[in-house]
Amino acid sequence: MEYAAEPRVDAYISALPEWQQAVCREVRELVHAADPEVAETIKRTRQPYFELQGNVCALLAAKDHVNVFLYDGGLTPDPEHLITGGHENKTGRTVAFYEGEAINGPALTEMFRSIIANNRAGGWRRIKNGQKP
After folding, report:
1. In 3D, which of 36, 35, 52, 42 has the Cα closest to residue 10?
2. How far apart are CA 84 and CA 92, in angstroms?
3. How far is CA 43 from CA 63, 66, 74, 115, in A?
4. Which burial class, exposed, middle or buried, applies to 50 when counting CB atoms under 10 A from its CB (0-12, 13-18, 19+)?
5. Edge-to-edge strands of the sheet including 55-61?
6. Choosing a second label site near 63 at 20 to 30 A (CA), which of 13, 16, 48, 76?
7. Residue 109 binned pLDDT confidence (cut-offs 50, 70, 90)
8. CA–CA gap between residue 21 and residue 115 (Å, rounded)
């Protein structure tokens, strides 16, 4: 898939252990496949974010896993039970990937598409409050 890669995101990923690089690259491809208009940036000094009319997700490599933060206000359906943390969080939830785990690409892509649709509809805060865009 063709997209405008942010060099700082490339640098973040390249500095990680091989297995974390693979996870981050796959997630990156999936979020761009969800919508070709997704843009990459760095926030919080070094953390990769993916945006389209608001935050879609962010990556954060930890010692033994990679967190994918989903900025959805808890609205995105999770029929495949990918969410591993933040179930009660009011702004976003987390999917953690550990070394050797397979990524359920179709399910994660659908979650990204749902977040993007909510962003285009005015964002999860507006949707939760019943406001019209």
Report:
1. 42
2. 12
3. 20, 17, 22, 19
4. buried
5. 39-43, 47-51, 55-61, 65-70, 93-98
6. 76
7. very high
8. 24
Please tell me the total number of residues recorded for the chain in this structure.
133
Which amino acid is residue 124, in one-letter code? W
Instruction: Say which residues have a Cβ less than 8 Å from residue 93's Cβ, sequence separation at least 6.
Output: 69, 70, 72, 74, 76, 83, 85, 86, 87
- Give the number of other CB atoms < 10 A from CB of residue 76: 21
| pTM reported for the whole predicted model | 0.94
Task: Give tens-digit pLDDT for 114-123.
Answer: 999 999 999 9
| 118-127 residues labelled b (16+ CB within 10 A) or e (exposed) | bbeeebbeeb
For residue 30, the model assigns a pLDDT of 98
List the structure tokens of 44: 């919080």
Percent of the chain with pLDDT over 70: 98
Write down the mean pLDDT value for the chain: 95
Model confidence at 88, in pLDDT bands (50, 70, 90)? Answer: confident
